[in-house]
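User: Structure tokens for this complex, please. No commentary.
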Amino acid sequence: MSSNRSTIPIGPYHPLQEEPEFWKLIVEGEKVVDVDVRIGYNHRGIEKLSEAKSFDQSIFIVERICGICSSSHPIACVQAVEDICNIEVPERALYIRTITQELERIHSHMLWLGLAGHFIGYNTVFMWSWKYREPICEIMETVTGNRQNYAMHKVGGVRRDIEKEHIPYILTKLDEFLKQLDMLKGAVLDDPVIHARLKGVGVLSREAAINYSAVGPVARASDFDIDVRRDHPYGVYSRLKWNVITQKEGDVFAKAVVRILEMFESASIIRQCLDKMPDGPIDSRPKDIEPGEGIGVIEAPRGECFHYIKCDGTNSPVRHKVRAPTYMNFPTFRETVIGGSVSDATIIMAAIDPCYCCTERMMIVDGDNKELLKAGDLIRLSQEKTRRIKERFGVI
Amino acid sequence: MKFPAYMFAFLVFPGFVFSAVAGLMAGWVDRKVTARLQWRVGPPWYQNFFDILKLLLYKETLIPRGVPKAVFLGMPALGLAAATLVSTIVLITSGMPKIGFIGDVIVVVYLMLIPPITLMLGGFASANSLASLGASREMKLMLSYELPFILALAVPIMKCGYVIRLGDIIAYQRLHGDIFASLSGGISFFVMLLCIQAKLGFVPFDMPEAETELMGGPYIEYSGKALAIFKLTKAVMTVAIPAFMIALYLGGIKLTLDGIVKAVIKYILILTAMIIIKNTNPRVRIDQAVKFFWGIVMVLAAVSLVLAFMGR
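Assistant:
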């Protein structure tokens, strides 16, 4: 390493993010020449926990993978279980799943918009978009009973029906939200200072997006037109009219545009769902899960969320694997951050809407980073510690 | 004035105690207005006093290993002394234009430069990569805003018949009306408003401390009393710099009840303008700030200077 290079540590604890993460920026002056991402400060062993639970219980576990995606992960999980033995899901339940999924998308994008404002020092946008998220939280409360951690989904259907008398309230709240969103869209997308700050910053080309397997809004902002909702339809998306938003530029501004316009699409999807929703049961009450494997793929707010479940005929999974979208988007930093300035690095990193608690159920091992531990080492360390504790208390 | 009178002016009124208290109240106005703009409630009026007292009385002052102690701890004190001197000179002269000496405008401009320089040196002394990055940004920012600031300052000097005594500028305005009312005065007032936004480190020019990038930049290693003194310096400057602008453009402070109320209203208007700029803009990059000050702001300052020369 040459002498004029220094390290700017962003993390493990940094005011930028509310979760522990470590981005090591190697800089020359203000210019970033290299970047290393280290995660693994938030390991909770959710996949292993899930294997010890029944299918009804593991939904609640995966719901707690992430506070924001507490509808996406359960839907992907129940879809994986339903995929094992082709469980029929009632029509009305599919509509309700779609509605919660889209409400969550709006909610998540609003949170991101606020945080992005905060990262570039625009705290007014931060506070306003979090305030304007409130109607969505209230709708969520009406629909699911909770503002967060909805406990809405189960294998074969949903737990709670949308009451007829609640629909007008939902629509008024949605209108209220759209009016505020329209104002915020103007304030953010037409601000010349924001243009100066975000346009042409952290450009991810289409080729790079494909090569790094970027997913979700990050890919769509780079003109890489993928969306699980359209490509592998689940829920009732194939029966509704909506557009996949893409942008050509691939910079941070394009990512913001994609997310803001997606919120309007989501609102339109919710309206159509409430309009077309048929009457009927909301739960097919499946009895047994046969041995087999299943996958559930959905479009979470941050991109494709993947759940794999293997079942041996008992009522709990023998293997439960989760791949969250942020995991796929992290490596794009090498393309976007290097060559920019330190001031831009933070907003570029925030532009993929990183969600560590989604991503971290395992260690990422970087090729030439010898300090990091592999899965085997972790198991060994854990066993050694258990043995030490047992020895100390004289159990062995 | 006798020596005890000088000391009273410097330490109590209108120097340190008055300026610090007024500055902390101004800081509260800032926090409250910001909070109301952002759908929040905001703190009670004594919040800033509690913050400072907590730092001064209860918090430990940590000194990182291997830093030059004299520089690290001396810089906050030097900065506060310079800021207090600025506020003393400016406030006394605004109230009593006859007191003062020839060239006090220039002395004030130089003294105003000392707090950012002390912050910069303190940042470099704290042996932290984030602090030195913040300090180097502070240096670039200072270089960028100082030139338009001085050009803008030349307008009142020129309009008052090339005087460099603050008292003379105020006396001229009492006779011929505020400089702000003229075209060149208005433009240069606006230029100076942008410059003091940067001088006080408000968004969009807070990149030296950039909370979400540098975690406070030069302040990062400061704690306890040293941090409290830096905060007091900022509070004193929040009073002194707008007061300097009032003296230059808005006719200073007349020492009648009416005049004092008017001056306070003018001060609050300037402060509110800064708070509104602060809350409707994201932080810009340092290169954008340099371009902004050396480009469009400098052109504006030059235009106002030419207009002043033409007597507009």
